[in-house]
């Protein structure tokens, strides 16, 4: 019978019991179904659980960055629970904390007592500062040369770089050169022969039986190295090797000229 009920509603047995008591308590209130969770919480004795214990358990829920429990004196039921989460799990996190507290101690905190604020995770902050390959195109011309076009994406904008080469043609180096020029545009470092960032070399190698491309990018005397597995397209591998070298140290905020380690803002944590 329990299995049929869970299959029909998607709730666990204790959740079915709570839902039933919520409706019963709400029906006895003058407002009917208005505020059933508050009615349930008021109709049942709430155990006292130390504030720091509640916060510690809440911080163990996936997605929670920080939690603060606010109480009025010695009242067991928290007046407000402020939660900072990363990503898009705002409603899910509140539900998970509510379930954990009830399962552990029988403390039922209405959902209306939760104030949840979503922030970007540390990983989101890092990834949005990294340039990503959006498009790569190598077109050959009638003179047996070629033009490579690389489009990079970062901070909601596209940045394009082009490079041309005559025969004999090395598509990997040509694509890497186009990637460096797109990178220069993204970083606002200038264009043309006076670029303060330039491609130094592209070499094929083999590591552990895996063919790879190593790219060397130079700026102000510093050589940055990046590597990418070759795969079926040497040109794409060359672009990714360039990004592997530069994304580690380049601040890729469009329109800035800075060049240094990533410094994302600290997020309140545990």
How would you describe the overall organization of this protein?
By secondary structure, the chain is α+β, with helices and mostly antiparallel strands. The chain has three domains: 1-44, no CATH class; 47-128, ANL, C-terminal domain (GMP Synthetase, Chain A, domain 3, 2-Layer Sandwich), CATH 3.30.300.30; 130-246, 2-Layer Sandwich (Double Stranded RNA Binding Domain). The protein is built from eight helices and nine strands. It has helices at residues 2-9, 13-27, 36-43, 51-59, 90-105, 122-128, 171-187, 234-246, and strands at residues 64-70, 80-86, 114-119, 132-140, 146-154, 157-165, 198-207, 210-219, 222-229. A three-stranded mixed β-sheet has the order 1-2-3. A three-stranded antiparallel β-sheet has the order 4-5-6. A three-stranded antiparallel β-sheet has the order 7-8-9. Strand 7 and strand 8 form a beta hairpin. It is rod-shaped. The two termini are 42 Å apart. The relative contact order is 0.10. Mean pLDDT is 76; it is low at 1-10, 29-34 and 251-270.
- Which spans have pLDDT < 50 for at least 5 consecutive residues? 1-10, 29-34, 251-270
Count of discrete domains? 3
Radius of gyration: 29 Å
**Structural class computed from helices and strand pairing:** alpha+beta
Quick one: biggest sheet? 3 strands, mixed
Please provide the count of β strands. Answer: 9
Question: SSE string, helix = H, strand = E?
Answer: HHHHEEHEHEEEHEEEH
Number of helices: 8
Could you give me the name of the CATH homologous superfamily of the largest domain?
Alpha-isopropylmalate synthase LeuA, regulatory domain
**Overall mean pLDDT:** 76
């Amino acid at each position: 019978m329990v299995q049929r009920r869970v299959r029909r509603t998607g709730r666990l047995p204790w959740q079915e019991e709570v839902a039933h008591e919520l409706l019963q308590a709400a029906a006895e209130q003058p407002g009917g179904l208005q505020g059933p969770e508050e009615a349930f919480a008021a109709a049942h004795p709430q155990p006292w659980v130390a504030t720091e214990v509640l916060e510690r358990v809440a911080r163990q829920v996936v997605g929670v960055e920080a939690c603060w429990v606010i109480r009025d004196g010695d009242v067991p039921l928290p007046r407000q629970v402020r939660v900072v989460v990363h990503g898009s799990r705002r409603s899910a996190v509140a539900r998970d904390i509510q379930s954990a507290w009830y399962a552990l101690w029988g403390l039922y905190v209405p959902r209306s007592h939760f104030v949840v604020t979503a922030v970007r995770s540390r990983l989101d902050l890092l990834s949005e500062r990294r340039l990503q390959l959006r498009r790569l195109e190598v077109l050959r011309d009638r003179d047996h040369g070629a033009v490579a076009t690389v489009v990079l994406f970062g901070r909601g904008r596209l940045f394009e770089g082009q490079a041309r080469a005559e025969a004999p043609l090395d598509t990997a180096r040509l694509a890497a050169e186009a990637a460096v020029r797109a990178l220069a545009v993204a970083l606002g470092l200038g264009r043309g022969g006076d670029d303060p960032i330039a491609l130094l070399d592209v070499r094929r190698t083999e590591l552990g039986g895996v063919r790879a491309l190593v790219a060397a990018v130079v700026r102000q005397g510093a050589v940055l190295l990046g590597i990418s597995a070759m795969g079926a397209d040497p040109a794409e591998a060359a672009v990714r090797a360039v990004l592997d070298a530069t994304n580690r140290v380049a601040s890729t905020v469009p329109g800035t000229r800075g060049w240094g380690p990533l410094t994302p803002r600290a997020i309140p944590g545990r």
